[in-house]
Design goal:
Elements (H helix, E strand, L loop, with lengths): L4 E6 L4 E7 L7 E6 L10 H4 L5 E6 L21 H12 L4 E6 L1 H12 L4 E7 L12 H12 L12 H12 L3 H11 E4 L2 E4 L15 H8 L6 E6 L11 H7 L3 E6 L5 H4 L1 H17 L4
Parallel strand pairs: 3-4, 3-5, 5-6, 6-9, 9-10
Antiparallel strand pairs: 1-2, 2-4, 7-8
Helix pairs in contact: 5-6, 7-8
């Protein structure tokens, strides 16, 4: 597979950036890739090499990577990403594609499969299936905390003397090798006085004021009609809330789940293993006439 090309998509008041891997296969499968929270399109760079039969567009979601931030009066709620994704698909002239998402990107992909099912031919979720949920009893306290946080100043961002220092920090936090973290971090940085700092919008770290309950999430998952592959980490990150995976899988009529090594960023840590699982899944779609 060739090196990716930088792409820009105009959404009127702002632009979204992306990495585009073409394919030289006779009938390439179109795959839209959505990264996780505070990651970017380069999160898919090692996995893309393992999928030579696919034309891949990996998007920098709003506020991430090299995409523009939303306006000061706008929200980064998951549902707000759906119109952006659909606008990009329209500009690509992709009536339908396989949608792959990691973590937050997997949650957005799950919502897209229900909100615009005609645009999603199949769904691949990496260490995710649907949005994070909140027990209903915790909703009042969450609402108060979220509102209070919006009136507080953003914390001062760390300035790294060089890119290598930022790569080392991210590798340690995510349990990745330096090699695996390199491209992801390089795309996540911006030059500032004294070195580099993270380019993502600080408002991405604000709490969601009204997340879904688990019952709401599972109701949405029951509406996913597409073939679905879930790649689950065999060593979950203890800092991340654990999804009710078994119960959620039971909600999706055509879902299969594989447990793979590599932790939460398994597609970066073990791209060959993840790529093999995805290729087998996609081959099954083609055999069934769904590719």
């Amino acid at each position: 597979m060739s090196e990716p090309a930088e792409r820009r998509f105009s959404l009127g008041d702002r632009n979204l950036a992306a990495l585009h891997w073409p394919s030289f296969a006779p009938r390439p499968l179109r795959l839209l890739a959505l990264h996780g929270w505070l990651d970017n399109a380069a999160s898919l760079s090692r996995l893309a090499v393992e999928l030579p039969g696919c034309e891949i567009l990996a998007l920098d979601l709003a506020g991430h990577g090299r995409s523009d931030w939303r306006g000061s009066d706008a929200s980064y709620a998951l549902v707000e990403h759906l119109p952006d994704v659909l606008a990009v698909l329209d500009q690509l002239s992709w009536p339908q594609s396989v949608v792959l998402g990691h973590s937050m990107g997997g949650a957005i992909a799950s919502l897209l499969a229900v909100a615009a099912p005609e645009r999603v031919g199949a769904l691949i979720c990496i260490d995710a299936l649907g949005p994070l949920s909140l027990p209903e009893s915790e909703a009042p306290a969450r609402l108060r905390r979220a509102l209070k946080a919006r009136s507080e100043p953003s914390p001062r961002r760390r300035v790294f003397a060089d890119v290598a220092a930022a790569v080392e920090q991210r590798a340690q936090l995510s349990g990745l090798s330096i090699e695996a973290a390199q491209a992801l971090v390089e795309r996540a940085l911006q030059p500032v006085e004294g070195g580099h700092s993270w380019a993502a919008d600080p408002r991405l770290q604000l709490l969601s004021a009204a997340p879904m309950s688990e019952a709401q999430v599972q109701a949405i998952l029951r509406a996913i009609s597409q073939p679905t592959l879930v790649l689950a980490a065999d060593t979950p990150d203890p800092r991340l809330p654990r999804l009710q995976v078994a119960a959620r899988l039971d909600c999706v009529p055509h879902a299969q789940c594989l447990q793979l090594p590599g932790g939460h960023h398994l597609h970066l840590a073990e791209p060959q293993c993840a790529g093999r699982a995805i290729r087998e899944f996609l081959a099954g779609l083609d055999d069934a006439g769904l590719g």
